[in-house]
Structures are given as structure tokens and as C-alpha cells.
Amino acid sequence: MCGIAGVYGLPDLLERAPAMLDAIAHRGPDAAGLHVADVPPGTALGNRRLAILDPRTVADQPFRTDGLALVYNGELYNFHAVRRELEAAGHTFTTESDTEVVAKAWRQWGPDSLRRFRGMFAFAILDERSGRLALARDPLGIKPLFVARRGRGLAFASEIKALRTALPDLEIDFAGVVASLMYYWIPDSHSVFRGVERLPAGHWAEITPEGAFRVHQYWDPRRELLVDSGPEPSTEELREIIHESIRAHMISDVPVATFLSGGLDSSLVTAVAAATAPDIEAYTIAFRTEDQRFEAMPDDAAYARRFADQLGITLNEIEIAPSIVDTLPRMVAMLDEPIGDAAAINTFMICEAARDAGIKVMLSGMGADELFGGYRKHLASLVAARYRRIPAPVRRTVIEPVVDALPVAGRRRGYRYTRWAKRFTGFAGREEGDAFHGSYSLFGTAELNALVSPDLRPAIADLEAEHAAIYWQGPPDDQVNRMCYTDVRLFLVGLNLAYTDRASMAASTEVRVPYVDVEVAKAAFAIPGEHKIVGRKGKMPLKLAAEGTVPAEIINRPKGLFSAPLRAWIRRDLTEMVDDLVLDGELIGDGLLDEAVVRRIVAADRAGTEDRSKEVWQLLTLETWYRGAKPARVAPH
After folding, report:
1. What does the alpha-carbon distance between residue 195 and residue 167 come to, in Å, rounded to a whole number?
2. pLDDT of amino acid 541
3. In the prediction, which pLDDT does 291 show?
4. Which residues contact 370 (CB under 8 A, 6 or more apart)?
5. Cβ atoms of 43 and 62 closer than 8 Å
6. ω into residue 62 within 30 of 0, thus cis?
7. In this predicted structure, what is the pLDDT of residue 289?
């Protein structure tokens, strides 16, 4: 795992390439390298290495072989098999790394090699004979790759902060700001800086010395997941696909550990990993008692402790009790974008503790909920279809006013079921696709239109249209898989994989996600939605596959959240910060947000009549980010 950065065909930026690498030094503290090419002029490829496979210096990057120069961020879990094919074709190897396999595979098969790779990756590879540069990203978007085109050249990097080092004149894209308010994250198709784009998942791009730039799709999720996924796997077949993926993700020349939240997904990963490597350790999070009580959070750590004892492995507990006033700006800086999921703090703190203990690789249970229908929003959206059968006058004059009047918190304790009821009635009355959108977006259309300046309102309709287009690409007769497909295309890659990459790499640690695997994804989408959510129970195929490996008390327990006690932080730790940064903030001062709407949101949360803690947290995140982006700020248009 590494960080990559470089420039192509931009002589005026060549001298900034070393600073780009310095900006992402946290991604690879073990080695650094920069290759300056002759053709075209103004081309340099850089790498910061986190050495995991073949940690010897002979495998450092940029890696040059057969007239190619490669900088690569990722892991190929099937690189031994690909290497054997290459050896049969006459290639010889000087390292035991997957980096060399990527380079020689590209020389042998070109872009056709991408469909042979199983893993997570983002790389840039320069053909020094032709001067052509190719960029590529893995099928499901686990690893990021940002690109900024300038004239006949471009700059690329694993993180935006490296691009801002090379291009300090980048301007804010306020459509991206609106996206961050709508979702509390940025869809993969958007950016908060004009001219900065993500190479889409499952795509590769090429640019020539003449400046011709083309983007190609090599992996189409609609075809791969919805058409060619194959027959529905049996429980035994699904179990073996998942177990095999977990085992494959353990390949490493350095120690590996796991996240263990006490829920089904991480417990299954940990159990299979422990069967493969009995000395493996696990890490879990715990919260201050007062925070857990106010948040009405289940005690996930208790389940993690019992299961670790059953497995006979060491469990390291990390208490999430940061000085949040100091931690919030650090989180915003490491994420680059206004991503308002405090789970990034959890990820960073766990990875930091693991790295301090000598661990470079962590296995995560992320992705299972998106693939198998495990979120509350999935069940809630199915229930909403029945809720809409109730006559609208009854919903609007009887049910919703009663729910609206309920408090969400007292002085010492939050009321979880009231929060859920208010959330449900806020979106359930809409049509199906819009209801699913409302189940996880922060603001409804009317409130978001009132919140942002008139100049920014057209972006709201564009974002909603984008969501609807993706949602209705899903199976026409399967609502659950429509939701899962939308989650894979938007929520998983735009939020969960994004913050996990940035937060873990900020701690110089690699996180691997065995569920976010092409073979697991295909198996998941071959399962009809009616088999994923049965009655009120979600993720049924995974639960059945986990029987005999994970205890029934974990399989059948209510879903926990890998989150943070936002409500407690907002109501106690961050009161003054909210006053200073949100109520008297520059977003309001510059006319981007309506002060009356912001004050109404904060007041409702403080009064306990509404749970607006996520919205307040995102406003804090956005304001903090906006002040940091001030040198690049322009008036919205």
C-alpha cells in the first residue's frame, strides 16, 4: 500500500513533484521515490511506500522494467497466480512483490490485464518508449485516484492535498459543497475543487504526449453485477466464496490484525482470519459511559470481548474519548473533503494504535451491509412502501404530528426509537426512489433549498436526478437489490471506502475489505432481495453462511453502528465550537448558507425536539473545511 503522485507533460509543475510526495508522506513512511522522464518533458512519477509485500528495497517504487515506469497503490491478492501465467509466457522476476507483477502484466496484456487482477489498486504507468501514460482504478473503487487536467498534461495523486500542493490556485466547486450538505459526503462523480476529478471505479485512462486524453471502462457494474452475476449461490457456496476472499486478503509479509466491533460482519472476518493465523490480534472501540448512555448505544465491546475469548485471540480496546475540539480539525485535514462521518475518527484511532503496536495491515468487515441489505434504511424503505398505503390525510394529520411532537432526548439520555420514528416519517411518504434517497440524505429538498443560497440551488436537482438515474438502473423487479446497487455505486465508494482510505492511511496503516471483492459482490447480487431481507431480518444469506463460525448471539443481535457519540459531543463538548464556527461562521457570512435556517437547526437540536446532531456535525465539518480552503475560495456561480 502506498501513496502515488505525479505530473505529466507539465514542465512548469515539475519542480513541485517532490512537494506533492511530501504532502502524502503519511501514506508511505517506509520509502520514497521520484522518477523524472524525458518524454514528454515535464513528467515525473512519485511514490511513498508502505512496504507490505516484499519489503526489500528492490521492490521500491517507481518500479522500472521492460521500458515501463510504474507507481502503484494497492494489493493484488491473486498476484501469485498472475505471476505464474507471466512466467509461462517467458517473463522473469527480480522481486517477490505484486508491483512487479502489475508492471509485467501491463507489458504482456496492456489494459486487458485489469480484468485479471483481483484486489484493490490505483496506479499510473508510463510507457517510456511511446511517452504514453495510463492510469487505472480497481473495479469497486476501493483505492482513490484524483486527476487534474491542465492544457495538454495532467497531475494525479492519491489525495487532493497533493494536487493542491502542485496547483494552489484550485477553486472551490460549490456543487460539491451542496453534495456534502445533501449527503455529508461527496459522490464519486463530484469534487469540491473545479478541475479535480476522480478516475471512476472500473475505468482506466490514457494520455499521449500530444495531449489526447481518453477514459475507458473495463468493468461495468450493471453488466457484471446485475446481468452476469450467475445463478444464486447456495449457503455452502456463499460461505466458501466469503471464506476464500478473507483468506486471500490475508496475504502479507508483515503482521495483520482485524477490526472486531462485536457485530456479524467483523466477527466472521475475524473468525476466518483466526483459523488461518491463530496468533492474529483484533482491535475494537469503546466509548465513555456517559456518552454511550446519552447516545443510547448498544455495548458492542461486550460482544467483541466474549467472542475474542472464544477464539483465544488478543483483543485491544481503544476508548474513543478524544479531545473532540482538537480532533475535528485534524479529521477534516486528513479527509481533504467535507466528509461528515465521525467514524473516520474511530478508524484513525484504531489504526494509529495498531501501527504503534507494529501492525501495518487491518482487515475490516466493511461492505457487507451494502451488498446483503443490512442497513436499517433498507428495512425502513420496505416498511415505507406499506406506510404509503395508509391514506395521506391520516399520515399527515394524525401520525406525523404525533411523532413530530415527541422529544428525542432528555437531559441525560437520548431516545433512540423516537429518533428512528422521526427519521422514518420524514421520508417514508415519498415515492420509492425518493424515499430511499431521503432515508440517508441529511436534508430534505425543501429544507436544503432554504438552507443554501439561490445560486447553489440548481445543484440540488442535479444531484437528485443523478441518484434517481442510478437507483432505477437496478433490477426492475427487486427493490432490495435496487437499494444495494445504489449503495455500491454511491454510498460505499463515496463515503465508507473514501473515509477508510484517508483515515487509515493518515495513520500509515492499510485497511483491507474482504467483502468488497468482485467475487463476493457477484455472489451477493445473484441473491434475490427477498432472500436478503426476510420479515424484519436483514442480511439473511450472510447470517446463514456464518452459522457454525460465529455464535448465534452475534448473528441474531440487533445491528450496531461503527459510529461515534455525535449527540453527546454536540450537546456537551462542542457547544462553544458550534456557536463560534457554525452560528457565526464564514459560510453564513459569505452568503452561502441562510443564517435563520442554520439557527433553527441548532436550536431544535439543543431543545431536544429534533435530532439534528448529524446536520450540526456536518455544518461544523463543512465550516472547518471551508476555512482551510480559503486560499482557493471563489464566489459561487
Report:
1. 10
2. 98
3. 62
4. 484, 487, 488, 491, 492, 496
5. no
6. yes
7. 66
The pLDDT tens digits of the residues spanning 552-563 come to: 999 998 776 556
User: Residues in the chain with pLDDT < 70?
Assistant: 1, 288-298, 321-322, 410-414, 560-563, 631-637
Alpha helix (H) ranges present in 452-513?
458-471, 479-486, 497-506
Is the Cβ–Cβ distance between 123 and 4 less than 8 Å? yes
* Measured CA distances, 96 to 52, 60, 298, 548 (Å): 11, 11, 45, 36
List the beta bridge partners of residue 36: 44
Alpha helices, DSSP H, located in 5-72: 17-23
Do the domains 2-219 and 224-373+486-555 sit in the same CATH topology, yes or no? no
Cα–Cα distance for residue pair 371/365, rounded to 1 Å:
12
Do 362 and 259 touch, CB atoms closer than 8 A? yes
Q: What is the DSSP letter of 83?
A: H
Taking the alpha carbons of 91, 93, 96, 102 in that order, is the dihedral positive or negative?
Answer: negative
SS3 137: strand
**Three cell numbers, residue 552:** 448465534
Of 266, 285, 288, nearest to 346 by C-alpha is 285
Which element (helix H / strand E) includes 134? strand 132-137
The Cα diameter of the chain in Å comes to: 75
For residue 417, what are the β-bridge partners?
none
Which grid cell is 536? Answer: 424484519
Digit-coded pLDDT (tens) for 147-164? 999 999 999 999 999 999
Strand partners, 29: 49
CA distances, 529 to each of 145, 199, 232, 424, 501 (Å):
32, 30, 11, 21, 29
CA angle 558, 559, 564 (to 5 degrees): 125
Give the three-state DSSP class for 143.
coil
CA dihedral 500, 505, 506, 508 (to 10 degrees): 140
Q: What is the DSSP letter of 556?
A: S
Q: How far apart are CA 17 and CA 34, in angstroms?
A: 8
C-alpha cell at 399: 401520525
Identify whether the C-beta of residue 9 lies closer than 8 Å to the C-beta of residue 43: yes
DSSP 8-state symbol, 591: T
> Which residues are bridge partners to 3 per DSSP?
48
C-alpha cell at 502: 484517508
- Residue 64: phi and psi, rounded to 5, are -115, 130
Class of CATH domain 2-219? alpha beta
In single-letter form, the type of residue at position 183 comes to: Y
pLDDT reported for residue 540: 98
Say how far apart CA 473 and CA 482 lie, in whole Å: 8
**Any idea which residue has 422529544 for its cell?**
407
Cα→Cα distances 217→59, 138, 201, 263, 383, Å: 29, 11, 9, 36, 37
Q: What pTM did the predictor assign? A: 0.95
Cα distance between the two ends of the chain: 39
Q: What residues does each domain of the chain span?
A: 2-219, 224-373+486-555, 565-637
Q: Which residue has the cell 466528509?
A: 339
Class of domain 224-373+486-555: alpha beta
